[in-house]
Specification:
10 strands, Rossmann fold, 2 domains, alpha/beta, 38% helix
């Protein structure tokens, strides 16, 4: 039955859980939660709405005040949507290494994008956001430490999962981590209400911060004080900045994580493409990485197990990245051969 919404923000959440058919091993039931169905295409729409509404309720954000955040892109895109609808100016700081699609999307939605040097990594863009907020009196959303981030996932993502598997098995929940909001917010609810569900967290093989066992240096407010020594640059944009966010650290301290799996860049790319070509599910590199980890869980899971894998965002965020490097703009030789199999409509060769 149809429904009319008062504004775009009411469409955030309630993303579908979809069964994997062709790529799943036959002895398990593998499902994915497709966060690309959020209005701006990623799980971070939830975070953006949650932190802004919390700031409004608590009086931290005043009418017309500028909002600022450091972001690899998806949080900034979500915030740009929320701020556009609510009438707040938005400035984001973003390291220059992230895909140009993200910059253009945020600017298209009315945000100002301040790029920071690649050498400063994630901490550099965070430091710039803090500096700008303090200098201009802007509201800093603090996605990596803000409890409203995790609270939003406890209220929405976690409840949706419980509803979708009410009365049915849910043996494993597989997720990545970035800010830690999804991990902490859903993890604590599952630990309380579905304690039989094993929580599996994945991270880049090039940045094995959680599996290293090395603690993150922190400031008094819980924010990262330095880059984590196990981090190095990787193409899984949105996953694992160069530090372990406070919210992720909280989930580790809560001991809700059953297993941490490391995922290679090649596997992330491969399974993003396979999801598109074998299941018709169009998602990004981090989704491919999470799915790769979920398949490893499936291999070892007992027969009849149910596995749920989070897919954080859409593939359209990655058109200028290596994920699409082998996708041709011009016709391939095979496509030309198909064209030439009938006499009409041939393109003239470029002179």
């Amino acid at each position: 039955m149809g429904k009319r919404y008062a504004n775009i923000l009411e469409t955030v959440g309630r993303t579908p859980v979809v069964k994997i058919n062709r790529l799943a091993p036959p002895h398990v039931n593998l499902y994915v939660k497709v966060e690309a169905f959020n209005p701006l295409g990623s799980v971070k729409d939830r975070l953006a709405l949650g932190v802004i509404e919390d700031a409004e309720k608590t009086g931290q954000l005043k009418p017309g005040q500028t909002v600022i955040e450091a972001t690899s892109g998806n949080t900034g895109i979500g915030l740009a949507m929320v701020c556009a609808q609510k009438g707040y100016p938005l400035v984001v700081t973003m390291a220059e290494t992230f895909s140009v699609e993200r910059r253009k999307l945020m600017r298209f939605l009315g945000a100002k994008v301040v790029l920071t040097p690649a050498a400063g990594r994630g901490l550099g863009m965070v430091a710039k956001a803090v500096e700008l907020a303090e200098t201009h009196g802007w509201f800093l959303t603090r996605q990596f430490t803000n409890e409203a981030n995790a609270d939003m996932h406890s209220r929405t993502t976690a409840r949706e999962i419980l509803d979708d598997f009410n009365g049915e098995r849910l043996d494993y929940w597989v997720t990545g981590f970035g800010t830690g909001g999804t991990l902490k917010g859903v993890g604590r609810v599952l630990a309380k209400e579905r304690p039989e569900t094993k929580i599996v967290v994945c991270e880049p093989d090039d940045a094995p911060m959680l599996s290293s066992g090395i603690e993150q240096q922190r400031n008094a407010d819980g924010s990262a004080a330095a880059s984590h020594p196990s981090w190095k640059p990787h193409p899984l944009q949105g996953w694992s900045p160069d530090f372990i966010a406070k919210l992720t650290g909280d989930a580790v301290d809560m001991k809700v994580i059953s297993q941490v799996l490391r995922v290679t860049n090649a596997d992330a790319m491969r399974w993003s493409k396979e999801l598109a070509r074998k299941e018709g599910i169009f998602v990004g590199i981090t989704s491919g990485a999470t799915f790769a980890a979920a398949l490893r869980v499936c291999e070892e899971a007992p027969a009849g197990s149910t596995v749920l894998c989070m897919l954080p965002d859409t593939g359209e965020r990655y058109l200028s990245t290596p994920l699409f490097a082998d996708v041709s703009v011009d016709m391939t030789a095979e496509e030309v051969e198909i064209s030439h199999s009938t006499p009409s409509g041939w393109l003239q060769p470029v002179q």
